[in-house]
Design a protein that fits this description.
Structural class: alpha/beta
Number of strands: 12
Pfam families: Glycos_transf_2 (PF00535)
EC number: 2.-.-.-
Keywords: Glycosyltransferase, Transferase
Number of domains: 2
Number of helices: 10
Protein name: Mycofactocin biosynthesis glycosyltransferase MftF
GO molecular function, one term: glycosyltransferase activity
CATH architecture of the largest domain: Alpha-Beta Complex
Radius of gyration: 18 Å
Strand content: 15-25%
Shape: globular
CATH class of the largest domain: Alpha Beta
Largest sheet: 10 strands, mixed
Order of helices and strands: EHEEHEEHEEEEEEHHEHHHHH
Length: about 325
């Protein structure tokens, strides 16, 4: 059976980036079977006049990346797989052919080699790993591309800025958690997919990423969203015995935020998580009880302190 693949592009005031993104989608050596743009209430007319080959789903307001991704996946009802592509991403012509080829049996998602749009030699993300202190590490981020990330392999999760997902697998675990709004929603999805027994592959197909295409429009800085959503993911999934690493990292982030002049945004992010913590804690038992793979096997015992452990690179600490 031929794999049918839709491209889903969440968009929010992306007039600067969207034309280039769509041009790259149309130029794929292995064509997409559908292109869906999910517009989060843009006011810059970026979702207008995109062409007859693009289906536009209008949400009317900014409901966040997670909602936009889910609505796009819902819209791709006749497709087997969905490529989530940020509006500020330009895919290499062979991107879909390579990632679709890596979506084999038991694989729920394929991470790709994300590099800087204006400097393709600078890595942005080559697949994610989650640590037991709650921090998500982006492999290779900020480093020069020296060939170390050219080999396919397995990773914990894919960055949803440019990743291919098996539609049935995503729907089977409930899709993206819309309560997270933006940032780390792909980490949370990756965790649930892995607990359900799915694997995630890395295929070094290149996706050039401008980065922060709409982040400056959000109500709080990226660091605040990362602080908020890290706490929520930990509350929903982590065992109590990992409290030590989590508390260590939270304290370290507070100190770093204070030193970096970002304490108010950091505390605002943590405070915004409080209302959701009871619901997350209630879901722990069901999530763990339904797991096919134990969380200890999914979240490796990687270093979480010392020279090899830092904060989340997106947060800057």
């Amino acid at each position: 059976m031929t794999l049918r693949v839709a491209a889903v592009v969440p968009n929010w005031n992306g007039a600067r980036w969207l034309p280039g993104c769509l041009a790259a989608l149309r130029a794929q050596e292995r064509p997409f079977d559908a292109i869906v743009v999910v517009d989060n209430g843009s006011v810059d007319e970026s979702a207008d006049g995109l062409g007859a080959d693009v289906r536009v789903v209008r949400l009317g307001e900014n409901r966040g990346f997670a909602v936009a991704a889910n609505r796009g996946i819902d819209a791709a009802v006749d497709c087997d797989a969905v490529a989530l592509v940020n509006s500020d991403v330009v895919l290499a012509p062979d991107w879909l052919a390579r990632t679709a080829g890596a979506l084999g049996d038991g694989v729920a998602a394929v991470a790709s080699k994300m590099v800087a749009l204006d400097d393709p030699g600078l890595l942005d993300d080559t697949g994610d790993f989650l640590r037991r202190d709650g921090v998500c590490e982006q492999r290779g981020r900020g480093r020069r591309d020296d060939g170390r990330w050219d080999a396919p392999g397995e990773v914990f999760a894919a960055c949803a800025g440019a990743a291919l997902y098996r539609r049935a697998a995503v729907l089977g675990v409930g899709g993206f958690d819309e309560r997270l709004f933006s940032y780390l929603e792909d980490v949370d999805l990756g965790l649930r997919l892995r607990l359900a027994g799915w694997r995630v592959r890395y295929e070094p197909a290149v996706a050039r990423h401008a980065g922060g295409g709409s982040a400056h429009q959000l109500e709080r800085p990226v660091g605040g969203w990362v602080a908020r959503n890290t706490l929520l993911i930990v509350a929903k999934a982590f065992p109590a015995r990992w409290a030590g690493p989590v508390l260590y990292r939270q304290a370290a982030w507070l100190v770093a935020a204070a030193r970096g002049g970002a304490l108010r945004a950091h505390l605002s992010g943590l405070a915004s998580a409080l209302a959701l913590l009871p619901a997350m804690l209630r879901e722990r038992q069901a999530l763990r009880a339904g797991a096919v793979v134990p969380i200890e096997a999914v979240v490796d015992d990687r270093p979480w302190r010392g020279p090899r452990a830092g904060g989340h690179p997106r947060a800057g600490f």
